[in-house]
TrEMBL record:
This is Protein phosphatase. Residues 24-308 form the PPM-type phosphatase domain. InterPro entries: PP2C, PPM-type-like_dom_sf, PPM-type_phosphatase-like_dom. PROSITE patterns: PPM_2 (PS51746). PANTHER family: PROTEIN PHOSPHATASE. GO terms for molecular function: protein serine/threonine phosphatase activity.
């Protein structure tokens, strides 16, 4: 597999570019300041065909970078192959259309399973170890038969997230992390409300001693691509409305910022700088002292924001 330095994953990148008239995209990724020449996050934005994804490499070394890059490259190549098959005869590929002939959930599963397989094989070969993995949050925009109507199909493994911000509604988290807090809820040790409160805490005095221990371990994930077992892929869909903003981000964003802070930034910044502002605020938070907040976390940081303008 060729090196992927020409993709969107390396070190620090920011792009803002309108694709089709109905959508605009803003995205940015930066490496952790502790290893500024190695970004273990990778992002994927195929503006013309509406495929979006963030990957967060696990491993704390070059293996994490290779895992996320390998998964990103595999997903993009598989997607383009499928689009070329579905849109035969077209000189320029466009957003796929929802149809009875195309099983969209299976399509997303195929992308992620292929990425998982590539991390286990090609990624392990490049890294020189099979101890590598990556999270993924992936979304694809599909055209409906009725003009001007779109549906977002999305899938994830791990703790990279997808959010939806609608003009008249609070920020909605579309994904549920594969992590410690979800496992505690599943085992009925805490409930959903308690898990959310722990996840969103900013200072230690908001939590009990036990809750604080859960908070500090909340970044532990229960599955990823390239892990010891094939992943369980979570897939769903939602209709896109005019004015919607969709955010895909790695935990470098949502571990540093609360959902309320993310919502405020999305609502208060122009669409062409929203990803940059999310990363900027996350980076500032990571510099804060422990006496100020328990959320400060140096990390790679990646955000993709899609604004639906039709």
């Amino acid at each position: 597999m060729p090196q992927h330095r020409n993709t969107l994953s390396h070190i620090a990148k920011e792009f803002v570019k309108p694709a089709l008239s109905h959508f605009s995209f803003s995205y940015r990724t930066i490496a952790c300041e502790r290893h500024p020449t190695r970004n273990e996050d990778s992002i994927l934005v195929d503006e013309r065909t509406g495929l979006l994804a963030v990957f967060d490499g696990v491993g704390g070394s070059a293996a994490g970078e290779i895992a996320s890059q390998t998964a990103q490259f595999a997903a993009l190549q598989q997607w383009r192959r499928i689009m070329q098959q579905q849109q035969k005869g077209r000189k320029v590929l466009s957003y796929p259309e929802v149809s009875e002939q195309l099983d969209l959930c299976t399509l997303l599963e195929q992308l992620i399973y292929d990425a998982d397989d590539q991390v286990r094989t090609e990624g392990a070969r490049r890294a020189g170890t099979d101890d590598l993995a990556t999270t993924v949050a992936l979304a694809a925009i599909f055209r409906e038969a009725e003009a001007g109507h779109y549906t977002l199909y999305y899938a994830h493994v791990g703790d990279s997230r997808i959010y939806l911000l609608r003009n008249d509604q609070p920020l909605q988290r579309l994904t549920k992390d594969d992590g410690l807090l979800a496992k505690l809820v599943e085992n009925r040790i805490i409930d959903e409300e308690n898990a959310f409160s722990i996840d969103q805490a900013k200072t230690s005095d908001q939590l009990s001693e036990t809750e604080l221990s859960y908070f500090r371990l909340r970044g532990g994930i229960t599955q990823a691509l390239g892990g010891p077992l094939p992943p369980t892929i979570h897939i769903s869909q939602i209709s896109i409305q005019p004015g919607d903003r969709v955010l895909l981000c790695t935990d470098g964003i949502h571990d540093n910022l609360t959902d309320d802070e993310i919502e405020h930034i999305l609502r208060s910044t122009p669409r062409n700088v929203s990803a940059r502002e999310l990363v900027h605020h996350s980076l500032n938070r990571s510099h804060e002292s422990r006496s100020e907040t328990i959320r400060a976390k140096p990390d790679d940081m990646s955000a993709i924001v899609v604004t639906c303008r039709f």
